[in-house]
UniProtKB/TrEMBL annotation, chain A:
This is 3-methyl-2-oxobutanoate dehydrogenase (2-methylpropanoyl-transferring). It comes from the Eukaryota. It comes from Deinandra increscens subsp. villosa. GO terms for molecular function: branched-chain 2-oxo acid dehydrogenase activity; metal ion binding. The lineage of its organism: Eukaryota, Viridiplantae, Streptophyta, Embryophyta, Tracheophyta. GO terms for biological process: branched-chain amino acid catabolic process. Its main location: mitochondrion. Heterotetramer of alpha and beta chains. It is found in: Mitochondrion matrix.
From TrEMBL, chain B:
GO terms for molecular function: metal ion binding; pyruvate dehydrogenase (acetyl-transferring) activity. One of its GO terms (biological process) is pyruvate decarboxylation to acetyl-CoA. This is Pyruvate dehydrogenase E1 component subunit beta. InterPro entries: PDHB_mito-type (IPR027110), THDP-binding (IPR029061), Transketo_C/PFOR_II (IPR009014), Transketolase-like_Pyr-bd (IPR005475), Transketolase_C (IPR033248). GO terms for cellular component: mitochondrial matrix. The pyruvate dehydrogenase complex catalyzes the overall conversion of pyruvate to acetyl-CoA and CO2. The pyruvate dehydrogenase complex catalyzes the overall conversion of pyruvate to acetyl-CoA and CO(2). It contains multiple copies of three enzymatic components: pyruvate dehydrogenase (E1), dihydrolipoamide acetyltransferase (E2) and lipoamide dehydrogenase (E3). The lineage of its organism: Eukaryota, Viridiplantae, Streptophyta, Embryophyta, Tracheophyta. The keyword Ubl conjugation does not apply. It comes from Deinandra increscens subsp. villosa.
Amino acid sequence: MASSSLKKSKNFIFYNLNLKSKFLIPDRTSAITNSLFHHRLLHSISSPPSPPVPKYASYSQLNSAIFELACLRRRLHSTTSVSNDISQLAVEPTSHQVLDFPGGKVKFTQKLIFTSNSTEERVHCYRVLDENGQPFTDIDSSLKISKELAVQMYTNMVTLEVMDTIFYESQRQGRISFYATTTGEEAINIASAAALDSKDFVFPQYREPGVLLWRGFTLQEFANQLFGNKYEYGKGRQMPIHYGSRKHNYITVASTVATQIPHAVGAAYSLKMENQDSCVITYFGDGGTSTADFHAAMNFAAVMEVPVIFFCRNNGWAISTPVDEQFRSDGVVVKGKAYGVPSIRIDGNDALAIYNAVNEARKMAIKEQTPVLIEALTYRAGHHTTSDDSTRYRSTDEIERWRGDQNPVKRFRKWIESKGWWNDVAESEYRSSIRKQVAQAIQVAERIEKPPVAEMFNDVYDIPPKNLKEQEVFVRKTVKKHTEDYPSDVPL
Amino acid sequence: MLGILRQKVGGATGLSSQGLGNHMLRLRPVTSALRNYSSATKEMTVRDALNSALDEEMAADPNVFVMGEEVGEYQGAYKITKGLLDKYGPERVVDTPITEAGFAGIGVGAAYHGLRPVIEFMTFNFSMQAIDHIINSAAKSNYMSAGKINVPIVFRGPNGPAAGVGAQHSQCYGGWYGSVPGLKVLVPYSSEDARGLLKSAIRDPDPVVFLENELLYGESFPVSAEVLDSSFCLPIGKAKIEREGKDVTITAFSKMVGYALKAAEILEKEGINAEVINLRSIRPLDRATINASVRKTNRLVTVEEGFPQHGIGAEICASVVEDSFGYLDAPVERIAGADVPTPYAANLERMAFPQIEDIVRAAKRVCYRSAPISATAS
């Protein structure tokens, strides 16, 4: 097991500031010094704790990734009410006595000080491209994106955008019963999928069809699911947008919020037992982080040391609940620290930032068998679903602003155009081609038969039980006997 | 010698233990001649039965793993998982933080990916924290994914009342889980049931809720060599007729099977020959066996410890009315726990759950013998 040398024993040994000893894991020293990220404690450095890591302001390069030091900054003792809790290390502990407590030695203090409920400065956000799609001057250029990959990412983002618009309209026209768009989160969908391997298992919430799209799910397959026809993989059993595909390693979407997060941890545990070169990723929104499942899963993943990426799409809104009514912490990234999970905050509308971060997170997760939390700041530019009218709880100005310069598709387009890889002609040709394809897919899907009644009773169990077989026979007899009461186009 | 024994019994392995058990009983005079084979009358506690079943299944399939609170270092809150941590290591016997929702969800996720978790709830009362995962993430998944995601998971633990543990530790969940399509719900009584049903549950590709009983853990039952064999499995969905009779059918499960058998002995002395059915499986419910029995005896008493409304007795009564109405000579009687949160005081607790006398009185009532209405019936 990759992490055998890192396995936590029953007696944790944390650092002792006086000793300034090093806890290095031999084969990763280079990784640590070269890495952009500081890892959580047990696997971490200890280049002398002094000088203490300075305040965030000195990490002024917006291009550098800052992973929170999870355990290095233990705040069990002396915390100052100064908002920047890292500065405590600058203060000499007032006592050299330690309490040898389960979990590690703890220093005492005579200062009666509480940690602040918030930090003066929020955790910085990793970004590569500015609003005009221009890369910052000193980004880490170790990750090169080829033209092919960039164009593929861009075209997938456009496909997602177009597909969303047309499918949404089809719901408005009454052709499908329900739809949820991914508007504003195209970069998250496509860029994160691009950074993963196709065998990495995906546990989505419901706003990540772009991941499936990247992996090769066709427009026709999407349309079939929305219309619940006999070719769709769910056999007509689920609401629209509840896609799933075994061959694409994308688990079926469930309506229950955040239940996929502990599932992802369990699947990652299975991967760990199999010792595979693969990780699991799970997506959820800002609202999902309030659920019990999120907390249990994060905690477990850290304790069990499993290769899972927790990807939070903080898009500002959980239906009508804005984030400041969802939590009072500095977003979701700080919660990673609380559970001992390395975390990062990234610009969720910057495709390159997402690509880089997920790429790095994946390597970390697999190599060190650790969970990683990514909080992507973005905006839900569309309504929650077709059952929602978000203008009732937020201003249209706000929505328009985020559809402007911050729009992830536009920003990425500016970048690839500046590289000479795309232009207006290609854009209009591509968009009109996709529009035709989506419309075509809808027309075809609409005409295909619905699944037969026989499928209503299958798959409840592995082997159909007697009572269901009897019921199916009974249903067929009834339909045959009273054909006038049943739709003629539903096959038996 | 055992081979010859099997021949006499008329079949290879694979006979249901019910059939085999009856044969074994009848053949006892023959086997006693083979005095060197004492395995026929070995006794085993339910706890050991469960432990050995888990042990054997974990040895046979490396994907099987156990997860729950206190299952590892503590050897199990009720010592069901004793010795497993030492034998299989912390990867396969996982001690968890306190979050049923968390570890049930994680177990389901592991099952999605191909492992075969056995999730232990310290009692099924705590499963309410995880019930969303049991029902929405496990039970419905095969259907909602059109057969692409199966969840070969087992949720096990003590169910129903123990002794003096109060309302939040005494509820029976048979009715709750028994109503969910996609789940299988098993209720073992004896050690043979425990071994055979747990092995079947672990091997089953569908999610199984395995309701044990804390007070039965320490009880010993005779087990045959067949039961002790590591390939021994009981079919899911088949009830067992523990005691044949012709005057009244008494259905029960878990601890109440023992009570029903004792009630049957008392009734025998009064000339009422009761047939006792050990349900073994709440979902699927063995309607065929129950109805066949009622058609024979024409009278039915159902016994359960759970709350009466929407309980197992209600379902059995409906099934019999649907399938065997013409055969009933008396209305069906349900004996169930009192419709109150379980009180703690010993005298009150005793009145809140069926006792042997209640079963005896109910059987007499359906046989139209005079019997005073007990305080708990109505």
